[in-house]
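Record pair follows.
FIRST:
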Amino acid sequence: MATWLPAIGKNEPVTTPAASALPSIGAVVLSQGTRMAELIRCLDGLRSQVGIDLDILVVGNGWVPEGIGDGLRTLALAENLGIPEGRNVGAAAVRGELICFIDDDAWIDDPHLLARMAHAFTLRPEIGSVQPHVCDEHGTTMRRWVPRWRTSDPDRPGPGFTIAECIFVVRREAFDGVGGWPGHFFYGHEGIDLTWRLWDAGWEVFYAGNLTAHHPATSPARHAVFYRHNARNRVWVARRNLPAAIVPVYLAAWILITIVRLAREPRALVTWGRGFVEGWRTYPGQRRPMSWSTVRHLARLGHPPIV
């Protein structure tokens, strides 16, 4: 394993290549049209990016994108296909060697951010995806946005073991090669699924902790389907991606963690339990268990796939 290189620092200059050599990035913004002010802020941040060839596509997930300004490409889906499948549709329609997925309530205030993230791919051809440090407008970073166990130093770059789907960039070759997002998940844990498949395919997942983007510090439990999908998709992730011997270990760990977390929320725990059972009774999608060499590799990096 090569030594991890930090992504280009936020205060370092970015040399802009000739127009014909600019990194090409397709930005997929998925929206249901329910957060228009936030969507406009997101798009303003994307349009401010320099040093890249950027194709912005707004995907209306059950919504016809309108009122978002001129000069942007849009794609309307007749119904809400869920987050991962909506992103898959957008990825197929946007152009670029790199794909930036960004939530409609996320935003960028550094005009060089995407150019700096693209530079990391140039430095390390084996990198499959790059995620910046995500914090809210007050600088607060939620633990779930830091893709490793040790979250006390979110500015520290290094390997990532999940993806904060609200904003990250992935190499199209890597994304297409592992089959994209698990569209049938609809919502929840699709970032873990994609991350594990990237590592297993030989790509590195990089956390650029010294580069910053923003997202409101909201609770995922605000979504009505959260507890059910959290449990169901957790089982699906394990059944799809882990060697058979690890599946019970991984799921047992999450049962214990969830019981501790939801001990004072019995209704949420019951809903979670029903989702867990649903995960066993329903088809998780094509099973492609990671190799034992990938398990050992992740363990050497400090994050075995058991939690």
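SECOND:
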Amino acid sequence: MRYGVGVDLGGTAVKMGLFTSNGELIDNWSIPTDTSKGGENILIDIAKSVSVKLAVKGIDKKQVEGLGIGIPGAVSNGVVDKCINLGWGEVDVKKELGTLCGLEVFSGNDANVAALGEYEAGSGRFYHSIVLVTLGTGVGGGIIIDGNIISGHCGYGGEIGHITVNPGETESCNCGKCGCLEQYASATGIRNLALKYLEESDEDSTLRSLGDDVTTKDIFSEAKNNDKIALKAVDYSMNILGTTLSNICHVINPEAVIISGGVAKAGDFLIDKIKPSFDKGTVYIDGETKLCLATLGDKAGMYGAFYLIR
């Protein structure tokens, strides 16, 4: 039997999966991400955890075809430029992790890798080309065309969250620009919109009783109950997202656009809110590009990391 290891490296946790060579997930686990001391222990911790898991399973490293890893930063030829969330500058992940764990290492940007996971084993497996959009604390993206990740010249391909959608915005995005999609369509952005509308209006809203503790989950829950402030925030955000995705489709012309991340837990309600502006924008290709939800949840990253090996 041959195996592979898929690793999804996040800012707070590292999710790992042990797969058979045909893509069957046989075990998955996680460890905290130690970002202290500039993240110098992260790769050491991953290598130790993987080695312990293989030993417990009685698997010799000679049986393991490789280790794939998705990283929250731009990756080019196994080298990460920088990862602000991890405290990293330039790190040769392929070389360093490979030396530490004794396995061949394959690496990519985390959103691109999650897209590969959905493409190979999730809702994207029915299509030849997809765009994946991850709506979480930020907005991530990945583009897969005929099985190939479009990572770009230096690893920044698929950075959908930093498309400028409002040139008149004066507030800065985390990236330093102003008016990025991430400022409106992320969980953070939707919450900020709702808080802004609450401050500007005296209109009744159940969100007021929650104060600063209001979450994006609360906003979608109340929007489903026709709360006017919640609906206003969701409608504005999803209108921008749908229009942006339609613009991407006119460049990429994918078979499917897949929505993932924590915000996607709003389910079909979310799709119904995106679809009007998406359909309006894709006037030439309306009905040909499917808009759907991801199915792998928080396992997409580890699946995609495994498929990097393949």
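COMMENT: The first helix runs from residue 42 to 57.
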